[in-house]
């Protein structure tokens, strides 16, 4: 072997080793994931799943990056050429492929060493390209712009929420969505059902005589703070009651208690 | 309601607590909330279950003690859309906030069905009507959780629940998520919190401090 050749070969060896290492790592995580799916599917949680997917995608990315580095020789230029096919069991091959390929026979070789699509697929691709080339150029152009437009729109839609995700949660809620609830109304409504704010009759002793007072109540209804109403009923209603939450206590303090 | 029957029947009722989260939604966005609730709750395939109730709150002040602030409130409800249904009387205790770790409000709660002359009965006992309103809306349930989305109407003239006599309060629907359960079931609070999270940001269900209303 000459010096330059060995250098090149060494380079190939190193990068191939690296690639094999990365692929093996990827394979292990996939195997682990499959194992988990098959055996622990009852306990697996969604965040856990996402974690696995994250690991797989980062490993795939690193393999891709490795293939793109300048140090990696152009693997496309290397040709794998089957010298001899044999139907006999090949122990070495079996060990290398972890028992997946038993023999280097005519049955499996076309599948593993294929560099072209199957004839039927090739035929269909051919048909498609003929169809594509037979189309009028301006129609193609029109369709292309259309597709680009749709894609751009879609990308915009997708990127808007993901961009706001990065912002603080609260501010994103305010920016991305219209106000759907009002704290003021919450206060008003809860005040009404628990304390009777704004619902109190001016004269709780005789609830049926309200006619004249209604006029006075109306302007006050516009106020922001219903509890400012100075009504005899209101003053009772909003006392910080010392009443016990226990029904028994309430019952014993009852002046009309029955024996 | 028969008077003498009340006391023994009260004794037989196990103390129930109501776990409660409250919020509100603007009328314009109510449909969005209803759709979401329909998807989240049981019986998604059937149509909305509506209610239209008149509630009158009766108050009895405790005259035997010097503290004038002591009073008892009983809430009497009857369904306007189902006149044959029995009336319903409810006692609610003071809502407790508890500490930060507690996810919901908790208050004592007693529900009893009763006949329609309960109002006269309460009045005879010395109760006076404190306030009344009409609650109209939709309810959902998921497991033992109950979700109410309803609007509160004030009676313009007392005594009539006619549609023309009702004036809506505010421009929002009240949203309540509640569970009535025996004392000491803290797990349900967590479930309710999880459920409330799913309604955000449409409606913020929170444990609303009733002392803020003073």
TrEMBL record, chain A:
GO terms for biological process: regulation of transcription by RNA polymerase II. The keyword Transcription applies. It is found in: Nucleus. Residues 161-186 are annotated as: Disordered. Keywords: Activator, Nucleus, Transcription, Transcription regulation. One of its GO terms (molecular function) is RNA polymerase II cis-regulatory region sequence-specific DNA binding. Pfam families: Med8. Residues 173-186 have a biased composition (Polar residues). Its main location: nucleus. The keyword Transcription regulation applies. One of its GO terms (cellular component) is mediator complex. It comes from the Eukaryota. Component of the Mediator complex, a coactivator involved in the regulated transcription of nearly all RNA polymerase II-dependent genes. Mediator functions as a bridge to convey information from gene-specific regulatory proteins to the basal RNA polymerase II transcription machinery. Mediator is recruited to promoters by direct interactions with regulatory proteins and serves as a scaffold for the assembly of a functional preinitiation complex with RNA polymerase II and the general transcription factors. Belongs to the Mediator complex subunit 8 family. Component of the Mediator complex. This is Mediator of RNA polymerase II transcription subunit 8.
TrEMBL record, chain B:
One of its GO terms (molecular function) is transcription coregulator activity. Gene3D superfamilies: Hypothetical Protein Pfu-838710-001. Component of the Mediator complex. One of its GO terms (cellular component) is core mediator complex. Belongs to the Mediator complex subunit 18 family. PANTHER family: MEDIATOR OF RNA POLYMERASE II TRANSCRIPTION SUBUNIT 18, MEDIATOR OF RNA POLYMERASE II TRANSCRIPTION, SUBUNIT 18. The gene is MED18. Component of the Mediator complex, a coactivator involved in the regulated transcription of nearly all RNA polymerase II-dependent genes. Mediator functions as a bridge to convey information from gene-specific regulatory proteins to the basal RNA polymerase II transcription machinery. Mediator is recruited to promoters by direct interactions with regulatory proteins and serves as a scaffold for the assembly of a functional preinitiation complex with RNA polymerase II and the general transcription factors. Coiled coil: none annotated. It comes from the Eukaryota. This is Mediator of RNA polymerase II transcription subunit 18. Keywords: Activator, Nucleus, Transcription, Transcription regulation. It is found in: Nucleus. The keyword Transcription applies. One of its GO terms (biological process) is termination of RNA polymerase II transcription. It comes from Elysia crispata (lettuce slug).
């Amino acid at each position: 072997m000459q010096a330059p050749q060995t250098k090149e070969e060494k380079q190939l060896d190193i990068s191939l080793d690296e690639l094999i290492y990365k692929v093996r790592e990827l394979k292990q995580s996939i195997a682990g994931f499959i194992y988990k799916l098959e055996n622990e599917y009852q306990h697996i949680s969604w965040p856990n799943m996402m974690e696995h997917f994250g690991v797989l995608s980062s490993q795939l990315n690193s393999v891709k990056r490795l293939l793109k580095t300048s140090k990696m020789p152009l693997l496309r230029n290397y040709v794998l050429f089957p010298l001899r096919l044999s139907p006999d069991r090949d122990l070495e091959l079996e060990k290398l492929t972890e028992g997946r390929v038993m023999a280097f026979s005519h049955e499996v070789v076309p599948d593993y060493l294929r560099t072209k699509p199957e004839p039927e697929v090739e035929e269909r691709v051919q048909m498609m390209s003929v169809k594509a080339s037979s189309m009028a150029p301006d129609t193609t152009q029109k369709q292309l712009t259309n597709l680009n437009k749709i894609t751009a729109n879609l990308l915009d839609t997708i990127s808007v929420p993901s961009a706001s995700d990065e912002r603080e949660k609260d501010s994103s809620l305010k920016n991305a969505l219209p106000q759907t609830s009002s704290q003021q109304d919450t206060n008003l409504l809860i005040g009404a059902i628990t304390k009777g704010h704004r619902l109190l009759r001016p004269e709780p002793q005789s609830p049926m005589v309200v006619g004249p007072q209604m006029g006075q109540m109306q302007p006050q209804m516009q106020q922001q703070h219903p509890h400012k109403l100075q009504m005899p009923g209101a003053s009772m209603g909003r006392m910080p009651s010392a009443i016990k939450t226990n029904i028994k206590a309430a019952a014993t303090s009852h002046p009309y208690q029955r024996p | 309601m028969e008077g003498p029957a009340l006391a023994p029947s009260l004794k037989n009722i196990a103390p129930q607590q109501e776990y409660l989260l409250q919020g509100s939604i603007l009328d314009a966005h109510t449909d969005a909330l209803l759709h979401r609730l329909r998807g989240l709750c049981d019986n998604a395939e059937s149509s909305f279950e509506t209610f239209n109730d008149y509630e009158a709150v009766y108050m009895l002040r405790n005259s035997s003690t010097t503290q004038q602030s002591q009073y008892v409130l009983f809430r009497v409800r009857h369904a306007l859309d189902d006149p044959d249904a029995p009336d319903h009387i409810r006692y609610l205790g003071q809502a407790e906030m508890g500490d930060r770790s507690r996810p919901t409000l908790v208050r004592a709660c007693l529900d009893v069905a009763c006949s329609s002359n309960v109002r006269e009965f309460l009045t005879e006992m010395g109760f006076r009507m404190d306030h009344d309103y009409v609650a109209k809306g939709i309810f959902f349930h998921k497991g033992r959780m109950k979700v109410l989305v309803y609007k509160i109407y004030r009676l313009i003239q007392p005594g009539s629940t006619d549609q023309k006599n009702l004036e809506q309060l505010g421009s929002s629907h009240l949203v309540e998520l509640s569970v009535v359960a025996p004392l000491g079931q803290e797990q349900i609070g967590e479930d309710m919190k999880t459920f409330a999270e799913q309604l955000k940001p449409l409606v913020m269900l929170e444990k609303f401090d009733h002392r803020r209303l003073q």
